[in-house]
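Internal ticket - ligand job 293, adenosine-5'-diphosphate:
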Amino acid sequence: MQEQRNHAQAKTAEAEEARAEMQLYAEQLKVSSQYKSEFLANMSHELRTPLNSMLVFSQFLKENNNHTLTDDELLYAGYIQNSGNDLLSLINDILDLSKVESGKMEPNIDAINLSEMPQIMEQHFSELAARKGLEFAVILHPDTPNLMFTDEQRLQQILKNLISNAIKFTTIGKVEITIRKAVLSAEHLEMQIDNSNEVISFAVRDTGLGIPKDKYELIFESFQQADGTIERNYGGTGLGLSISNQLTTLLGGSLLLESELGVGSIFTLYLPSLSSDFEPFEAAPTVEILSSP
Ligand code: ADP
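stdout (structure tokens):
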């Protein structure tokens, strides 16, 4: 009897020790992740300053050269400017990611007019799509309310990431965005909203490459692409979806992916209309994965 009790006590002590170790490990992980985010935020900030002056002066060279530069020199000034802009957007992405990961990004909730969204997206993307010979359409479903409350800048950032991917990975056909009042099935209602909140869906549908099922989770991780080989056909940093996913969580929403290889992909963003006293969620983002359409 005594032996059994000793055995049980030893087991409990072992379990306690394991739990304490796990807790210590989780705390260490949190601290190192915090250091990483702070390092990235500081580094990105320091890089932006010299880069901004490169951009300003290359612009100046292009615009105020009084015909003193040759055509080739003007072309090179353009290259400096384009590469500088690419680098700036990479730095901004890293900065955003580190801010949102370290919980330092506060959403700026305000009323936004959904009826203006199609025009904003069309202005931004129609030309790019047309240059690739793609149809581009933004459809505002008649049941969509005029206003919703969210962070407009972050909503646009998510949509721009999804739409530019849709255009990038599509060679024939069309890219279509549908905005509507969302009807969610029970399993997607884990989205942390209360019943009085309206949910709006933004579905970005393309007729492009499609994404293999075994890459669904990977592509939402930072710096990851479905085609990770050196010979890959498409450029990019692999940060866009990771940022979009984190921002979606910040705004209390869900991002769903449905795709079929060779047929196309649909990324659907569900966002609740928030109240201004909304507290951002700290939980790690979850990517919801649906089966093929
Ligand atoms: P990037 O576009 O810079 O590579 P993202 O994080 O935005 O980074 O996307 C990660 C990867 O997900 C892409 O490299 C691509 O492999 C895949 N992907 C994203 N959107 C699409 C899409 N609409 N169609 C096909 N593949 C996509």
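Auto-summary: The two ends are 61 Å apart (CA to CA). The pocket of adenosine-5'-diphosphate is lined by residues 161, 165-166, 169, 206, 208-209, 211, 219, 225-227, 236-242, 265 (CB under 6 Å).
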